[in-house]
Design a protein that fits this description.
- The chain has about 250 residues and is an alpha/beta fold.
- The chain folds into two domains: about 5-20 and about 130-245, Cytidine Deaminase, domain 2 (3-Layer(aba) Sandwich), CATH 3.40.140; about 25-120, no CATH class.
- It contains eleven helices and seven strands.
- The protein has helices at about 25-30, 35-40, 45-50, 50-60, 70-80, 85-90, 95, 105-125, 135-145, 180-190, 210-225; strands spanning about 5, 150-155, 165-170, 175-180, 195-200, 230-240, 240-245.
- A five-stranded mixed β-sheet has the order 3-2-5-6-7, with helices on both faces. The protein has a two-stranded parallel sheet with strand order 1-4.
- Helix 1 crosses helix 8 (about 105-125), helix 4 crosses helix 5 (about 70-80) and helix 10 (about 180-190) packs across helix 11.
């Protein structure tokens, strides 16, 4: 189960609402603080890096808070406990701090590093001229794929398909998220976007679209056309990978 649509409507009345603040300046500052070897860890790397590389990366983060030489062993035990570096970094900070050998400082450093990586991917996707699908998908994966609950992420694009912003529109449970066509189109229009990408995650691990996912995308296409905006893609992410409606010929 995934998208649960409420109050469906193909006609959308745009209301005056506050414009979402663009956090790109804050994100840029945090992104610039990211070590170069971490900023290069993108979509392709996330599926191809070896376990050793993940351990080394986590060890480098832990080294900022660990006074002894055993941080590599600690990193290995943390990745063993969660199954992957991404799962360690996206886990609740209090849970990470409970792993034997770790403390609140370790957990805080890991969460800070994760936030910095997400910000780096956002800045890269936003600052790249023109439509850069690779960096947009990279950002989407880092932003929502590891979440334990379903989230709906909107990517706003201008007339040149350049990313002008993003927003977590809503959050749900482990198995569904409630969202309406009206809510999505309203958000796009209020950002003065010409087109958009909608993405959501499946915490269960499967990236295959549900019948609710397919039905919502169909209604979104109709509503977007009526309002003069374009849905570029609908992307489903999970810890196992990602699915594109456009690349699969469904949009």
């Amino acid at each position: 189960m995934s998208f649960i649509e409420y109050a469906p409507s193909s006609s959308v009345a745009v209301k005056e609402t506050p414009v979402h603040r663009d956090l790109s300046e804050k994100r840029s500052r945090r992104a610039n603080a990211l070590p170069r070897h971490m900023s290069r860890w993108t979509v392709r790397d996330r599926t191809q890096k070896s376990d050793d590389a993940e351990i080394e990366l986590l060890a480098a983060i832990l080294a900022t808070q660990t006074a002894n030489a055993h941080f590599r062993e600690l990193a290995e035990s943390m990745i063993d406990a969660y199954g992957s570096l991404a799962k360690v970094m996206s886990a609740p900070q209090r849970d990470v701090a409970r792993i034997p050998g770790t403390n609140d400082s370790h957990a805080a450093s890991i969460k800070a590093a994760y936030a910095t990586i997400v910000d780096t991917m956002y800045v890269k996707a936003k600052e790249t001229k023109g439509y850069d699908y690779h960096w947009i998908v990279t950002y989407i994966l880092w932003e929502i794929s590891q979440s334990p609950v379903e989230k709906v992420l909107l990517i706003y694009l201008d007339k040149n398909n350049h990313m002008i912003g993003s927003e977590i529109l809503c959050k749900g449970s482990e198995s569904f998220v409630a969202v309406s066509v009206r809510e999505i189109i309203l958000a796009v229009c209020n950002r003065d976007a010409v087109s958009f990408i909608i993405a959501h995650n499946h915490p269960g691990g499967s990236v295959q679209p549900s019948k609710e996912d397919r039905a919502l995308v169909t209604k979104l296409m109709q509503a977007a056309a009526a309002m003069g905006v374009i849905i570029i893609d609908s992307i489903i992410t999970a810890t196992t990978g990602w699915f594109s409606f456009r690349e699969s010929g469904l949009l």
